[in-house]
């Protein structure tokens, strides 16, 4: 299994405030990797740092062996990272279809395949994104990220604030993506669901990687101490 993403000694700042001090993580081809930790420990900042959405970052970030630490965010997307950010950020004045094709590239993921993953989007393809429910907007943002045909899909709190039945649909879609061989870096608060799909886990504490291992190595003591569950 070849290495897709390698992060070493990652540091990040918002303004003059250093948020990350020593983040280490990796994602191999075809892996689902979970990034865990209590609120405020640096999970979203790690994702933002990988995607060059922080004020300053330092350390090593490699995608398929190529350093991306000095690239701007749009070039990181072009290099093959599809981001589903925290919060549902759709283009509200565009239709569902227009949202999906806005940044699409040629590849295995096209409109037909996204519609198969999320049939609701095909039913609402002509509606403006602003009229969709929260769950449908989340499906749309995931579909839009897939339409760039990423090498790595990053999902930051993709099920937060959604009704239970919609959360189940999102998790079912994530499992389908895993089964298809998609490489995924995943942040979510639902520990049971995370551990059911993850191949490897990393825990952050105060902006640094504190623990890593396979899901079956995550003991109750570790979870109680660092995840607050």
In angstroms, what is the radius of gyration? Answer: 17 Å
Large-scale geometry: globular
**Widest sheet: strand order?**
6-7-8-3-9-10
Q: How far is the first residue's CA from the last residue's CA?
A: 32 Å
Identify low-pLDDT runs: none
Largest sheet: 6 strands, mixed
Mean pLDDT across the residues is: 94
Number of helices, where a helix is a run of at least 4 consecutive DSSP H or I residues: 9
Q: What are the secondary-structure elements, in order, as H or E? A: EEEHEEHEHHHHEHEHEEH
By oligomeric state, this entry counts as: single chain
Proportion of helical residues: 25-40%
Strand content: 25-35%
Counting helices, strands and paired strands, the structural category is: alpha/beta
Q: How many strand segments? A: 10
